[in-house]
Specification:
By secondary structure, this protein is α/β, with parallel strands linked by helices. The protein folds into 2 domains: 220 residues, Uncharacterised protein PF07075, DUF1343 (Rossmann fold, 3-Layer(aba) Sandwich); 125 residues, Alpha-Beta Complex (Aspartate Aminotransferase, domain 1). Helix content is 33%, strand content 13%. The chain is built from 14 helices and 10 strands. Helix 5 links the parallel strand 5 and strand 6. The longest helix is centred in the N-terminal third of the chain and has 26 residues.
Length: 419
């Protein structure tokens, strides 16, 4: 009797798992690159030794890990894993160096691309035929996964290896472009390519652009294949894809996080002078400081009638990071129209209004030199900081921030893989 009950329970549990996966699959309107590759029975990998660059976001629409999919497939051999910033499981704090180790689940070696090496070493590549890249990105230049992709492509070109990019949606869509192109002297791992801050391309499209426009170091060019998605459109939000959002890093927990990252991430580089919600439950969604009148700040910002956004007063105590355990106040941001909002400029409007409220606040004058350098690197220039800090007026830098957008959109069309 007890055995019969346990058997029924097991069957019911198995059915529930199957049903849950079926619901996920039914909701998905987009087939990811990994699914298109699997549908082809991994034909392009036959007889090859494969290295995989991925993290926790590398899953199919059923939430099966690309690591597991490739490791269990037949006809080729997955021999190595490579992890970007935040690690292969996405559980390491941003900026922290990561060492090589062995993956407990698969027994495969994991080589860090965010530690002593930023690109796969030659002695490791000697054992690999093909490098596969499968990471969900957020569509913003300063998010370092695309920099790791660039380093992988450089290493592949130097060692005569092929790179396969399994394409994924850009959560900011395929039409939004914001910010100026990086200036000479400001290229870094958070601004590695001459592209705008928000670039409006999928990672596969961007890889093709980087490869064909001489954006790799020494204008290298690798053998590159992009496995396209099926069903994705340029005007899709991430919600439109029907896919589940898997956190790409600790402070990018949900599908709207990429937009909030763009809205506050550059100011967040100043670290010790303002909270952007990192360390609280709203990463990248707030602007707060000790003693700020959040009601007045929200009113001032809302009275600007900025398109696609409203502000609400907020008060909180961060659990860690800047102002840990202190009561701070300011505003929380709410996107009302994604197509109309200018994400990147939002943080500058906040600084503008804070300076009008508190003329001695002058956040850019109080920040440490290394944090100002990080601000400039993320911005891709020091011109915005220098010109803005004269009057703390967005009008003084708006033309500069917009100057490259139309030309980049024109260039981008050469690399569109989707309508």
């Amino acid at each position: 009797m007890k055995l019969n009950y346990l058997l029924k329970l097991t069957i019911l549990y198995s059915f529930m798992i199957f049903l849950n996966h079926s619901i996920i699959a039914q909701n998905a309107k987009v087939q990811l690159g990994i699914e298109v590759l699997a549908k082809s029975n991994f034909e392009i990998l036959k007889g090859k030794k494969v290295g995989l660059i991925t993290n926790a976001s590398g899953v199919d629409s059923h939430l099966n890990s690309t690591i597991d999919i490739l490791n269990s497939a037949k006809g080729f051999e997955l021999v190595a894993l490579f992890g970007p910033e935040h690690g292969i499981r996405g559980d390491v704090e941003g900026g922290d160096n990561i060492s090589d180790y062995t993956d407990k689940t698969t027994g495969l070696p994991v080589y860090s691309l965010y530690g002593k090496n930023r690109k796969p070493p030659t002695d490791i590549l000697d054992k690999i035929d093909i490098l596969i890249y499968d990471i969900q990105d957020i569509g913003c230049r300063s998010y370092t996964f695309i920099s790791s992709l660039g380093k992988v492509m450089e290493a592949a070109a130097e060692n005569n290896k092929q790179v396969i990019v399994l394409d994924r949606p850009n959560p900011l869509g395929g039409n939004k472009v914001e910010g100026s192109i990086v200036e000479e002297g400001f290229f870094s791992f958070i601004s590695q390519f001459p592209i705008p801050y928000v670039y409006g391309l999928t990672v596969g499209e961007l890889a093709n652009m980087i490869n064909n426009e001489g954006m790799l170091e020494n204008k290298l060019k690798c053998s590159l294949i992009v496995v396209k998605m099926e069903g994705w459109k340029r005007n899709f939000s991430f919600e439109d894809t029907g896919l589940n959002w898997v956190p790409t890093s600790p402070h990018v927990p949900h599908k709207d996080s990429p937009a909030f990252y763009v809205m506050s991430g550059i100011v967040g580089e100043l670290r010790d002078v303002i909270s952007i919600g990192v360390g609280y439950t709203l990463p990248f969604q707030t602007f707060a400081y000790k003693g700020v009148d959040g009601i007045e700040l929200a009113n001032r910002l809302n009275n600007l009638n900025l398109s696609g956004i409203i502000f609400m007063p907020i008060s909180y105590k961060p659990y860690y990071a800047f102002a840990k355990g202190e009561q701070i106040s300011g505003v929380e941001t709410f996107i009302t129209d994604f197509d109309k909002i200018e994400l990147m400029k939002t943080q500058l409007y906040v600084l503008q209004e804070l300076n009008l409220m508190y003329p001695n606040f002058k956040i850019l004058d109080k920040s440490a030199a290394n944090h100002l350098r990080a601000f400039d690197k993320a911005m891709g220039t020091d011109k915005v900081r220098i010109d803005f800090s004269k009057n703390y007026s967005v009008a003084d830098v708006e033309k500069y921030l917009d100057k490259d957008i139309e030309a980049f959109k024109l260039l981008s069309k050469k690399y569109y893989l989707y309508e």
